[in-house]
Amino acid sequence: VQVAESGGGLVQAGGSLRLSCAGSGFRLDDYNIGWFRQAPGKEREGVSSISVSDGTTHYSDSVLGRFTISSEYAKNTVYLQMDSLKTEDTAVYYCAALDKIPGRRLTERLEDWYLEAWGQGTLVTVSS
Description:
Blueprint (H helix, E strand, L loop, with lengths): L1 E5 L2 E4 L4 E8 L7 E7 L6 E6 L6 E3 L7 E6 L4 E6 L8 E8 L16 E4 L3 E6 L1
Parallel strand pairs: 2-11
Antiparallel strand pairs: 1-3, 3-8, 4-5, 4-9, 5-6, 7-8, 9-10, 9-11
């Protein structure tokens, strides 16, 4: 099971970026997929998650209404559309394949996730 992120870059505040998470070695609905980020000097933070099998999505309060997670099953890829970016969104963004745990509800909280695999990350820098 492997995932690889792409799409990061430098953008001005208020701008947009779309991150991609390409999965290999598994089908997209074998796992839930999550995005988390780590800003310099800060703890890792769950950003969003998606259950590809039933389409449910979750967002942290800090990105709700600005970020949109989606999937393209044919390409085995999950996207994170980031709009109205703020300087505080600057971080390395990671995607992860999350184990499905019977009886446990998927959330946007990193501490609730069981990470099967994650990528090297992609840097997003938002300038003022």
